[in-house]
TrEMBL record, chains A, B, C, D:
Keyword Signal set for record: yes
Coiled-coil annotated spans: none
Organism: Zeimonas arvi
Record-given protein name: Cyclase family protein
Keyword Cell wall biogenesis/degradation attached: no
Gene Ontology biological process terms in this record: L-tryptophan catabolic process to kynurenine
UniProt entry keywords in alphabetical sequence: Signal
GO molecular function: arylformamidase activity
Signal sequence residues: 1-27
Gene3D superfamilies with a match to the protein in the record: Putative cyclase
Pfam families on file: Cyclase
Highest taxon of the lineage: Bacteria
Amino acid sequence: MMRSNRRLAALTTLGASLGLAASLAFAQQANWHPSKWGAKDEIGAANYLTPERAAAAAKLVKTGKVYSLGIEVTPDTPAFPPRGCKLYIVQPGQHAGATLGETKTSYNDDILNCWVGIGSQLDGLGHIGIDNVYYNGVHAKDFVDSTGLKKYGIEKVPPMVTRGVLLDMAGYLGVDVVKEGTAFNKAEIEGAARKQGVEIREGDVVLFHTGWLSLIDKDPKRYGSVEPGLGKEGALYLVGKGVVAVGADTWGLEVLPFEKGVGVFEVHQILLAKNGTYILENMNTAPLAQDKAYEFMFVLGQNKYKGAVQSMINPVAIR
Amino acid sequence: MMRSNRRLAALTTLGASLGLAASLAFAQQANWHPSKWGAKDEIGAANYLTPERAAAAAKLVKTGKVYSLGIEVTPDTPAFPPRGCKLYIVQPGQHAGATLGETKTSYNDDILNCWVGIGSQLDGLGHIGIDNVYYNGVHAKDFVDSTGLKKYGIEKVPPMVTRGVLLDMAGYLGVDVVKEGTAFNKAEIEGAARKQGVEIREGDVVLFHTGWLSLIDKDPKRYGSVEPGLGKEGALYLVGKGVVAVGADTWGLEVLPFEKGVGVFEVHQILLAKNGTYILENMNTAPLAQDKAYEFMFVLGQNKYKGAVQSMINPVAIR
Amino acid sequence: MMRSNRRLAALTTLGASLGLAASLAFAQQANWHPSKWGAKDEIGAANYLTPERAAAAAKLVKTGKVYSLGIEVTPDTPAFPPRGCKLYIVQPGQHAGATLGETKTSYNDDILNCWVGIGSQLDGLGHIGIDNVYYNGVHAKDFVDSTGLKKYGIEKVPPMVTRGVLLDMAGYLGVDVVKEGTAFNKAEIEGAARKQGVEIREGDVVLFHTGWLSLIDKDPKRYGSVEPGLGKEGALYLVGKGVVAVGADTWGLEVLPFEKGVGVFEVHQILLAKNGTYILENMNTAPLAQDKAYEFMFVLGQNKYKGAVQSMINPVAIR
Amino acid sequence: MMRSNRRLAALTTLGASLGLAASLAFAQQANWHPSKWGAKDEIGAANYLTPERAAAAAKLVKTGKVYSLGIEVTPDTPAFPPRGCKLYIVQPGQHAGATLGETKTSYNDDILNCWVGIGSQLDGLGHIGIDNVYYNGVHAKDFVDSTGLKKYGIEKVPPMVTRGVLLDMAGYLGVDVVKEGTAFNKAEIEGAARKQGVEIREGDVVLFHTGWLSLIDKDPKRYGSVEPGLGKEGALYLVGKGVVAVGADTWGLEVLPFEKGVGVFEVHQILLAKNGTYILENMNTAPLAQDKAYEFMFVLGQNKYKGAVQSMINPVAIR
């Protein structure tokens, strides 16, 4: 179905109507594999990461102010059902306060029973597929195992050390919290970038600030059921720019309710499955927006549990 | 016991015999709380982190080469008993390959049943205590809860963006793998630093390369039961230097078997409980040693699960 | 402390004032170990179970009507904090509906991340202690291990096949739901037994019906914070009778708020620690009460996870 | 495929060649749904359980000797991959030996991270399907949910109180341990029953003793990879008899390697999916065989975790 001529035609028309060049990204939408990095590639847009870009990102650091983009997670953090997370603190071998050795060592240890996709997270390329077919056209039956993915495990993603760009959509729209259902497409992205005086370049990590994260405690139900976010055209636009990852201060990056005529998590499909572009969710962007920090060094080293679909993260912005 | 005059006297003598100035760090050993950052402090040596040091660290980046210091973790990764880790891959709501919506979205999700202290890890200040008393003199009964620490939770630790220093002890000792039981004390630390032409400064993260991590697959039993590592004098020396964290390519940083006259995990006690100095374990230092990368920008943003004792990590070195 | 003369005196006086003979059970309260079954005994009142009693219980079966005394458990079942339970259904190796072999075998499997003490449960003798000392005077440090009890593991408890007795306290008190804080002591137990025309004998399992379980869905907060139940004198009385186990249709058997002058879960201490008498919680007694089934064959075979403190259960009553 | 005429013909021929009447059970094999208990039925052969049969079973009790048919489970118990089980013992709110209240209550609690299908277990009707279609023709997509089955949850199975029959196949074959790959079909079942002087009746639970369980510690690899057990013809034979459940002292009941021409776990398909007949695994039958206890009262009350596929169990035999 995804390769039908009719659909290709429709997308070509869409591309034309958007006034976009017939970019490789667009051509890929109907016939999306092999990926532009070859049929064996497992890291997608992380191929854009280069030492040159890392070195250039380091040059963006002026004051050394550091931003922790990860949010705190608790058992009550809203998450896409049936996700949840529990932590247990234990004191192995120290029952009733017993200690170890002459210097009376005590210790606490901890156990997580946790869905990985909770709080601030990096979606790997094995997260979302199209009719059970994932990035680079690999079918679920060929890489999904009950105890870990045999391809696209999160451990494969190299550290992201590159230029980060914040698009303050709340500021652009003149609100504290962008309304649910507000889609960020070409016009909004270009508008916000122009207003801020930043451009989006190949190899960037782009983060949207919407203010939505401020609802996580105040109205967790609203927070977790809808959101403003990236639209389908906007996703194609950013893919065309060659970004490594797109993130937001929302639980799922893409706009919800979904745009008219756009499928269930189709923006995820476009980014992850079709283009190998990573997604960053629940990013704590407010301090960046507050400081008008629109450009910064972005550093993410995610946990490397082998075969994991995704990772709980805490990326660092420095400027 | 820890505050007895006799012990204070002994430590003062030890300090003198080591040729060290009677630093605050030393004075603290017998009467170790309140901490030098006050009785309420919860982050210890992370207080050494400053924007200036972050900016200076960014200036160390020349080529932009990036090193992922975290190791891959699997269910077979050796860990301090009874620690272990299991991952499950699931496809919620997609039984028998069912998909979501018109664009036929499929997705994988994952669940971790995992001790947090596995693979590459950051030990928080609530990890190790002395007779149930932890950093800043806080008793276990006053901050340990079964579902999360009420103080010293790992989410409190700010991102570590600072200068990293590698001490290649294997290279210094002319071996591929430093033998278990080999203690790194003042002489070895200064010797290696001198050979490499680096100095250790306040605010640094210091990593030892020993080659020990190469045994993790080849001889997991040997790997996990003993190790070369930091000695007691060496720990006091580094504390005296004002480092933020000390790490190694071993499972527990400190030398095992423990040095003669040194208690069970007493080096952990000195670093974490007495001085608030963080510990980084199972650091993948081999590529740094290979490149003679003795000085680099170190960036660590750990997951912020609230109340966790520690975190699985993947710090990034950039130079 | 537990052995002080003053306390012994107090208990002796209590015994006298209750008009009870100075039974072994009472004498044990101040000096409660070794147990009446010897210092090495690990099964307590399960020693009362005999083939004769099992055979006699089978003779109570007349119509063959079977009662399932276990309740259904879900993630929402109220439980003593921080207890909870999660179940995951998975289809290992069958991604996207793939099947096994020529006859196309599909299968579901399931994973529990669950505190054991949830729903209908059997408390083992390692559950409750007195100042870290448990049944038969064994200190926590001598049998508690992080991955399983080295004594009193639930696997040690033999199947309970014996006479069951229901005391319908709601019926006795003429209410649908007995009010929280209502203590069942000698007078109430004897009163209800007399009204029903049953006697309590050595080797019995005694279950109280209070109607409280009907609140589990209707008012889970009230359900889980207080309850009617066994009082201290009542516990001593039943111990004196030589019962194997005492249960109720409440989450914790004993009356809450605790009786005046009675300690936190002191009834648990009396039953489990001091006398090796088992506790059965969240028993679905309503169908028995409805049928006026006051005497029946009671059969319980609990899961034998080695070293577990307790077990989720579903005892069977037959009459 | 399952309903093809060719297959029906083949099965009819098989039925004839076995000398069996064309029972409903057989007729169902090709066109196996709706079940004989109607299209809405969720409990299958548990419909054979009646008060009369429970009462008759109680009459089998003569001496009152009780047998615990469940085995002990530990983290090392071999299980069908990737199954496994971990238990953690914790002391909530009692850090460093702190106690609760004036009577100094201490307590241990426990957490299971455990696949349910481990050790002695009851397979529910949602466990095994045919091309994603389960008992009564229900498709996986219509009842399988990630957090619990919406049909066939193990909580639906009523307590099994009925006549139990042991077939001592090791005794019949004159060996201690029946060899892997040995199939129990009509001839072997009838032969063993005749030798023992017992008959198999509607409503029975039939258990095979093979001695295989003695390998669980001695040779866990052999234990878990193959087994003697029920053959396809034998399964159809027992279904024809109207048994409630079939069990064995093996991990998977059915013979492995599978019989020639028999599919992967096809005996499971015949019993569970096609006929709603329950399976009991890892039954500790040796003490029954030792006592020549061929007929007994069988009582099983399994944990009622809602929506679970199966249950860890400890059935009780009494005679």
